[in-house]
Design brief:
The protein has 652 residues and is an alpha+beta fold. The protein folds into 5 domains: 2-119, 2-Layer Sandwich (Beta-Lactamase); 140-280, Beta-Lactamase, CATH 3.30.450.20; 300-397, Beta-Lactamase; 403-483, Helix Hairpins (Orthogonal Bundle), CATH 1.10.287; 489-650, 2-Layer Sandwich (Heat Shock Protein 90). A 5-stranded antiparallel sheet has the order 2-1-5-4-3, sandwiched between helices. Strands 7-6-10-9-8 form a 5-stranded antiparallel sheet, with helices on both faces. Strands 12-11-15-14-13 form a 5-stranded antiparallel sheet, sandwiched between helices. A hairpin with a 5-residue loop joins strand 4 and strand 5 (106-115). Helix 17 (399-448) runs antiparallel to helix 18, helix 18 (454-484) crosses helix 22 (616-626) and helix 19 packs parallel to helix 20 (535-551). The protein binds adenosine-5'-diphosphate (ADP). Residues 548-549, 552, 582, 584-587, 595, 601-602, 606, 612-618, 641 line the site of adenosine-5'-diphosphate. The site of adenosine-5'-diphosphate has 20 residues, from helix 20 and helix 22.
Length: 652
């Protein structure tokens, strides 16, 4: 008994579990070292001690278990905890059972306990990390599938034994692809997959996996099978996949096999990224490129692309090749300078300007392959192709246009020369006509002063009048021809402006009287008297306007006004406004444009009635233009007209 007692003590002491044996009064008889260690106790302190003394913080539920054990009941818990006095929580697993004396009465209780706090913590950590992984898995914007391909690889191995060329094998046995697929076991799919494939749930998706393979995808899948059979741990391919109601999508599929599953393939990760949009953009890009190509190549308009840095022709269309007589390939090896006869600097300028301004228009002299010179116009604009700044040129053949233009210029010059010659001839002619006419008028006047009978006197008067009106017409023609031939000049001189006004009015006075018109003059009192200008021409202008006013007014009035508009005393310049107002027939609205034109009169009925050549206003206006002014007028039909102009002249 002694011996067995020692043995029991020994056994308990070294048991790897935390064990303690208490007597009926819950005093320690035996404890295992593990127990001491777990509860941080010393053996010598504990044997014979009361359990609740060693653990004063023992919870009521355990005290209850002890009571029940002393009554012969066994209680246990796999996952329990208690709070130590110092606040720390320990997790435990325990069993509490009675032990019996040889007389079968209960001698006390045995406590098997295990502190599992550490394990609990590790478990919690594991749980957390699992959850984190799950979150990542489910919330990833990439489709992730976890699959078990062990049956697939086993099946592939059997195939490979007799058919090392898998490509050929699957080509000959296309049904086998589907068979291999049926051996895929899906372990899990992430949340995103459900959305991506348009499934109702994960279960729905997993049950319908076979529907996701298009015919093309099936054929593609041979690549995956081959990769697996060749022990590849990573494999990626462009793929297409069907969905459950979202149409066919273009995807990149990646397969990863974790190191530990590289042989068994029990766990394989398959991720799928949607590249449908990218593919569409690529297709659109290709399409637009093709469109541009046809636009560029098929166009009948000549199009050239050049590199502004070097002047090299990067591309040219058929129209350019046809025009210049080089092939497209020849052109692509040429520099733009080889097409030009312009000096190199001009071409250089074009290139730099095109770069700077983006868009430019040029005209160039070019040369064809056979040496024919041609003229072209070029519309340049900058384009960026593959990140490089290039110049796109549209070229037009303007050889013919230029030739016609040149011919027209020559014709115009010839016409101008002819017109000038005509004017010169007229000027000379007028001069030649005036000399004999002056003699006719002069001698008729002398004749009038000799003793004549009434009839003779009347004839002489008619000759003088007719001569004078012919002279005035010839003077007009002479002036006009001179102006046209640019031969008329102004001769400025100092003169008394009041004197000029009086002289002019005196010339008109008799005619005015003849037609029953009153003649008024209104001249500003502060007008400077001595001014500098071409007195003769100014007088001619005034006579012209006053003459017209008197001619087109009967029994009315004609007023000459001279006002100061402004006076610059520093520079001794005065701006005068001359106006001639009449109460005559006025000018019809529709004729107002044309009365300034040479040889134009308001209408021919007026000409017949009033005479005249239609040159007066044209000459007046030209003279005023030479003086830096112009003629204006206001008129009311039947009420009269006012002709006016401003001139700036120096004064003293
Ligand atoms: P013309 O030698 O015929 O007078 P003008 O050039 O002086 O030539 O005038 C052109 C036309 O303008 C005249 O024929 C007339 O129809 C019109 N005209 C000019 N001045 C007046 C005016 N004061 N009143 C009415 N018509 C005028």
């Amino acid at each position: 008994m002694e011996q067995s007692y020692d043995l029991l003590q020994y056994l308990i002491k070294h048991d790897p579990n935390a064990i303690t044996v208490l007597d009926k009064n819950l005093k320690y008889i035996y404890v295992s070292e593990r127990f001491l260690h777990d509860y941080k106790l010393e053996e010598k302190d504990i044997i014979g001690k009361y359990h609740y003394e060693a653990f004063p913080d023992i919870p009521e539920k355990w005290r209850e278990s002890h009571r029940r054990a002393l009554n012969g009941e066994v209680t246990r818990s796999d996952d329990d905890f208690y709070k130590r006095e110092d606040g720390t929580v320990e997790y435990t697993r325990w069993e509490c059972r009675p032990w019996y004396l040889p007389d079968h009465t209960i001698g006390g209780i045995v406590l098997y306990t295990e502190v599992i706090t550490e394990r609990k913590r590790a478990e919690k950590e594991l749980q957390k990390s699992r959850e984190r992984y799950r979150q990542l898995f489910d919330n990833s914007p990439v489709v992730i599938w976890e699959e078990d391909l062990s049956e697939v690889i086993d099946y592939l191995k059997t195939i490979k034994q007799n058919n090392p060329d898998l490509d050929r094998y699957f080509h000959q046995h296309p049904d086998e692809i589907a068979h291999c697929m049926s051996k895929i076991k899906i372990i899990d799919v992430n949340d995103y997959s459900v959305e991506f494939y348009g499934a109702k749930s994960k279960a729905h998706l997993m049950a319908n996996m076979h529907k996701l393979f298009t015919e093309k995808a099936m054929k593609n899948f041979v690549q995956v099978l081959k990769a697996i059979a060749n022990h590849k741990r990573f494999f990626r391919m462009d793929h297409e996949t069907n969905t459950l109601g979202k149409g066919i999508k273009n995807v990149v599929m990646e397969i990863r096999i974790p190191e530990e599953y590289k042989d068994s393939l029990k766990r394989v990760y398959l991720s799928t990224t949607d590249i449908t949009k990218q593919k569409k953009t690529e297709a659109a890009l290709r399409e637009s490129e093709a469109k541009f190509r046809t636009l560029f190549e098929g166009q009948s308009a000549m199009q050239l692309i050049i590199d502004p840095q070097t002047g090299m022709i990067v591309d040219a269309n058929q129209a350019v090749a046809d025009f210049y007589g080089w092939t497209i390939n020849e052109l692509k090896q040429m520099n733009i300078i080889q097409l030009r006869t312009n000096p190199f600097e001009e071409t250089l300028k074009e290139l730099t300007q095109s770069i700077k301004n983006g868009k430019v228009y040029f005209e160039f002299s070019n040369i064809k392959a056979d040496g024919t010179p041609v003229e072209v116009e070029v519309f340049s604009s900058q384009v960026i192709i593959d990140g490089k700044k290039l110049i796109h040129n549209i070229v037009h053949d303007i050889t013919e246009k230029k030739r016609v233009q040149l011919e027209m210029e020559i014709a115009k010059e010839q016409a101008l020369a002819a017109s000038k010659a005509k004017s010169e001839f007229l000027a000379n002619m007028s001069h030649e006509l005036r000399t004999p006419l002056n003699a006719i008028i002069g001698f008729s006047e002398l004749l009038r002063d000799t003793p004549l009978n009434n009839s003779q006197k009347k004839y002489a008067d008619i000759i003088v009048n007719a001569g004078e009106s012919l002279l005035s017409i010839i003077s007009d023609i002479l002036d006009f021809s001179k102006i046209e031939a640019n031969k008329l000049e102004l001769f400025p001189e100092s003169f008394d402006i009041l004197e000029l006004i009086e002289n002019t009015l005196n010339i008109i006075r008799f005619k005015a009287y003849e037609r029953g018109n009153r003649l008024y003059e209104e001249v500003s009192a502060d007008i400077p008297r001595i001014v500098t200008g071409d007195m003769t021409r100014l007088k001619q202008i005034l006579i012209n306007l006053l003459g017209n006013a008197v001619k087109f007014t009967e029994n009315g009035s004609v007023t000459l006004r001279v006002n100061i508009i402004s006076k610059d005393e520093n520079n001794q310049q005065v701006t005068l406004m001359f106006s001639v107002q009449d109460t005559g027939i006025g000018i019809k609205k529709e004729n107002r444009e044309k009365i300034f034109e040479a040889f134009n009169q308001e209408d021919y009925s007026i000409t017949r009635k009033f005479g005249g050549t239609g040159l007066g206003l044209a000459i007046t206006n030209r003279l005023l233009e030479m003086m830096g002014s112009s003629l204006s007028f206001e008129s009311l039909e039947g009420k009269g007209s006012t002709f006016f102009f401003q001139i700036q002249i120096p004064y003293k």
